[in-house]
Recover the amino acids of this structure.
């Protein structure tokens, strides 16, 4: 039986994803702690969010994969994010003065919050926010229905996010990536030489030449100064495919840092 | 005399930058409020942070420039960010249980915080964090020396950021951008057609052909779904230069969205 660690506590969106994969679940309270548990063998798989369609990349996930842990992406899972206004039973909209949630959830519901003139406060997770408001009539939390259920709270308003295209992509990390399935994606990170103009153009040309489709390109500061970037690129194909192998070799010889985060089945 | 609005309250890093530019300063408590004040003519210039070398882009600045306000970048200013542990006079390290700061400052000092086993809490700004701890022996704030001064607090430990390459780039926004100086940069935002593979490659090729150096490339979610991006690109040259004019025209005909954020002197 495989142990699965996830970004907890119970009742988070990551918990919802973990439930889809197995029963032997352990929550950890930070993203690096989930990764650490896979790295040291306490768990076989670890689930963390990697990007949201509204708020963008989850910086700590990308930075930890780039700089701290040698883990592989074994699987990707994409779910729709529906945020709800969670309250104690009997609370009415006009009672609410303060609302608590994770910074990303607050950012996703900015219009709702300002329209209703309630004061936002940051919590370490959506589930923790729900836990914090138990017993307070003038406080609300923002989170998923699981969080409301867990703490015997009610959903006063559902789907309060500003934008309906709200999806989060999660990755299942492990020590090894996934064998080829015929419909795979590969994720890599690289840094280009800053003293060679057109470096990124050259790398993109390698994919273009082989007609390989990029599904994501994201830049992150390399932490070495402004204007110095790491690029996170996802593309179709498995690193065991002959054409992908050659692409990776060619990128390696044109970058000063390259890390293959792994190949895994495309989510559908 | 020109009124300058900035991301306040007083004592923030943005205030430090505003002080370099003039005396007639008005603080606003959010980045969109600063932009709104320039858009509606309450102030002539507005100063906001746009990117940090460790934590990356300031999402709300980029998103507001892309989707909400038609403002131009008139100037850029880059300063080194030194974070300090700020306490009430007489507080010792072992007294501190909680530390307050802006989310970016907390993120920049993660190693210091976890090494000293203090509990981080988010505040809306570094200056607000300093204000909040006045009178509490067991609380500290993270911020600049100005914030400590303003509230009669002391710096217990200086330069507590994880990484010494910590710089923030600020932009001065106005209704018009800057006339050419001979050493300028231009900022643009664009979206590529998703159904045309190699779209970004083609755009980068336009710069490459004219040997124009990109000083920044940043992707942000377009808020239309995962894998759909806006690209923020900065490059050398002024939009009044003949070669840059042609480049912008060529990009326009290869993208479905293009916004020129303006041309301004390169900071040195």
């Amino acid at each position: 039986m495989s142990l699965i660690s996830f970004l907890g506590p119970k009742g988070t969106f990551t918990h919802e994803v973990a439930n889809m994969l197995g029963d032997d679940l352990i929550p950890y309270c930070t993203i690096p702690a989930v990764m650490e548990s896979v790295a040291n063998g306490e768990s076989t798989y670890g689930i963390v969010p990697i990007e949201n369609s509204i708020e963008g990349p989850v910086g700590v996930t990308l930075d930890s994969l780039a700089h701290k842990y040698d883990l592989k992406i074994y699987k990707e899972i994409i779910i729709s994010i529906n945020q709800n206004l969670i309250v104690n039973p009997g609370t009415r909209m006009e009672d609410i003065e303060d609302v608590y949630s994770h910074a990303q959830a607050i950012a996703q519901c900015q219009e709702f919050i300002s329209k209703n003139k309630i004061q936002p406060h940051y919590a370490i997770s959506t589930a923790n926010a729900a836990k914090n408001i138990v017993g307070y009539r003038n406080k609300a939390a923002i989170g998923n229905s699981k969080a409301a259920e867990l703490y015997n709270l009610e959903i006063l308003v559902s789907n309060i996010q500003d934008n309906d295209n709200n999806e989060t992509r999660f990755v299942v990390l492990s020590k090894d990536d996934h064998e080829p399935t015929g419909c795979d994606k590969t994720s890599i990170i690289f840094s280009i030489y800053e003293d060679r103009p057109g470096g990124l153009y050259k790398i993109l040309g390698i994919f273009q030449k082989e007609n390989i489709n990029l599904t994501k390109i994201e830049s992150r500061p390399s932490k070495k100064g402004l204007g110095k970037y790491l690029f996170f690129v996802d593309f179709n194909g498995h690193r065991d495919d002959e054409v992908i192998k050659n692409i990776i070799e060619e990128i390696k010889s044109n970058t000063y840092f390259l890390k293959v985060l792994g190949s895994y089945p495309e989510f559908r």
Remarks:
- The first strand of chain A starts at residue 4 and ends at 7.
- Chain A touches chain B at residues 51-56, 59-60, 78, 103, 107, 122, 163, 165, 167, 169, 197-198, 200-201, 204-205, 207-208, 211, 213-221, 223-229 (CB under 8 Å).
